[in-house]
Design a protein that fits this description.
Elements lengths: L5 H26 L3 H4 L3 H22 L9 H10 L9 H33 L4 H5 L2 H6 L4 H23 L13 H23 L19
């Protein structure tokens, strides 16, 4: 079986971090959005948020998978330590220091990684009988918060970006161009709703008394 080069490993893990972080940012952004706008399509937005959070957790689980032979952050650190002379933008000593700092980050993240791994094994990737019988069990034993998940991506991104920069001399944060384009979609929904309310008030000469989107003027009807 062909073994990937260190560059190939770095590129694959960068992609995993990028995609996983993007799912997380999408879910977080929608959770902060105007609830009125989300209620225009509650099933769509609800499933998008839940699905994005599950995919974000699965991305972290893949990055730290313990399956034998899997390409992970841990195998990256091991392989990098064996190839210190291949780093283009660091001396062997500097590369070693970067690897050790990355290993320390992983150790600090371990409680979060354990929670995500438990969730993956008992619900996300497999339907564990005990979890099916008592769904609250996995939540109680594998507590995970939004800040926890954000921290996992932030620290993992630092590991991959710093090692990539040291090995390949390429710098930069991992972001999709247009990664926040969901905001444009929400703005179009807001605009359409505000226009509807404005037309309603003009046609019926009465003020709209129901909930309206944020940033939608309460004075559309002139009195």
């Amino acid at each position: 079986m062909a073994k990937p080069t260190l560059k190939q490993t770095l590129e694959a893990l960068r992609r995993q971090v990028l995609v996983g972080k993007s799912y997380f940012n999408l879910a977080r952004g929608l959770l902060k959005a105007d609830p009125y706008l989300l209620q225009t399509a509650p099933t769509f937005f609800g499933l998008t948020i839940d699905g994005s959070l599950e995919l974000a957790q699965m991305a972290v689980a893949r990055l730290y998978d313990k399956t034998k032979g899997a390409v992970t952050i841990r195998t990256l650190l091991y392989d990098a330590a064996q190839q210190l002379s291949t780093f283009q933008n660091a001396t062997p000593k500097e590369a070693e220091e970067t690897i050790l700092e990355s290993a320390r980050r992983v150790i600090v993240l371990q409680p979060i990684l354990d929670a995500i791994r438990s969730r993956r094994n008992k619900w996300l990737a497999h339907l564990d009988p005990a979890t099916v019988a008592n769904p609250s069990t996995v939540a109680a034993r594998a507590t995970l918060t939004m800040p926890d998940l954000e921290n996992a991506f932030r620290e993992t991104e630092k590991i991959v970006v710093e090692l990539f920069a040291r090995h390949q001399g390429v710098f930069g944060e991992l972001e999709f161009i247009g990664g926040d384009d969901y905001q444009m979609a929400l703005d179009w929904i807001r605009s359409a709703k505000c226009t509807f309310i404005e037309n309603y008030e003009k046609e019926f000469h009465t003020r709209w008394t129901d909930v309206r989107p944020k940033d939608c003027s309460n004075n559309l009807l002139k009195t």
